[in-house]
Description:
By secondary structure, the protein is of the alpha+beta class. Among the domains are: about 135-215, Thrombin, subunit H (Beta Barrel); about 230-330, Trypsin-like serine proteases (Thrombin, subunit H), CATH 2.40.10.10; about 340-425, PDZ domain (Pdz3 Domain), CATH 2.30.42. The protein is built from six helices and 18 strands. The strands form three sheets. A six-stranded antiparallel beta barrel has the order 1-2-3-6-5-4. A six-stranded antiparallel beta barrel has the order 7-8-9-12-11-10. Strand 17 and strand 18 (about 420-425) form a beta hairpin. The model is unreliable at about 1-75, about 75-85 and about 90-120 (pLDDT under 50).
Amino acid sequence: MSDDKLRDEEKGENELLDESDNFHENQNVSDKQEITSEEEIIVDVDEEQKTIENTDKLALDGNNRNKNNKKLKSLSIIALALVFSVIGGTIGSFLTYVGLNYSNRIYVNSQLPDQNININLNDEIYYAAAVAQKSRKWVVGVTTMETYNTWLGEETSQGVGSGVIVNSNGYILTNSHVVGDGNADEIKVSLIDGTIETAEVLWNDSVLDLAIIKIKRNNLSFAEFGDSDELMVGEPVIAIGNPMSLDLDRTVTNGIISGLNRSLLIDNTIIKPLIQTNATINPGNSGGPLLNAKGEVIGINTAKMTSAEGLGFSIPINIALPILDQIVNNGSAGGYIGIKYVSLAEYEQRMGLDLTAEHGIMVLEIVEDSPSQKAGIEKGDVIIKIDDTKIEDQTDLIRKLYEYKSGDIINVTYIRDNKEHKTELKLTEKPTIQ
């Protein structure tokens, strides 16, 4: 993928807002009264003086009355202001008192014990709670002890994972890598009731990364299964397991199905097809269930991408169910054809060749007296189809063979000398290694 080009962001200019204060002046203009009289009065000097004195006195009395009126108005305004101040202060104090009491009342109520919340398990909002409750009895913890040789001598390692009880008689489905690909010296299973049981490996396949183990217990609660072939991208899922340690047993994380039919390269082995989810899957979750909103197992959690968040992967349950059915009923699973092989793509890459076949597996060796030898298959043949199923690599072949049992007859299509051939092959049980 090419890097996305960054777009230049346009810089916005902030507009400055001019603030202006408008002041309005009110001017009080008093009307001037002009008194004119044109009366001709002949008076003595004394009378004129009296008239002037009386006039001055009247004017003085008028001024005094005006001043008194102004004083009265001023006093009235002051008194009225005081009254409103007292009333306002009283109301303000009352509101403050009520507000504080109301605030205190809310605070006190918030300290009451938490209310009981009734979860409606039919409500999709709480599907995770319902699924967790439903699955708690059949999700188990798996711990292992494994001894291996190093240049320093023998060393022992302890592993932790998860598993799913799939049968009331103690059959448990988990990952092959959880049980050391069948090489674990000791396997312990932790149940919901607190008991710990010893388990044995009945079957495992490192290419599929699946294993079936069994404990000696009966009447156990066990999982329900969904149809992983009917999944849709975007539907909700739940992952349950024991991340990091059994101290975090039955941890629940939720998310959605992010993708389907994914392939993952682990230890030079391609694991496919896988369910991709953004539900958190951590070390210790391996072997635990991926469930739909009904609480049905739709996958077995197997891996996550450590270089990114929200990239977890699960093995579709429909791959495991036919194998589980055969192990429980027959004690073995799948058919045996007796060849050693590698994918055609890997063979061409290593040998620097470009062969005629576009896909398939390259036969590297034929086991003596095996079903393949009896069917006429030879070293150098490229198997491209079994029955009507296209075979692109070793994972396709392994998955297909688990759909059959010993004694079944299959049609094998292969290419030899640039020509297509077909043959019938009768499957047998895989011989026990002496």
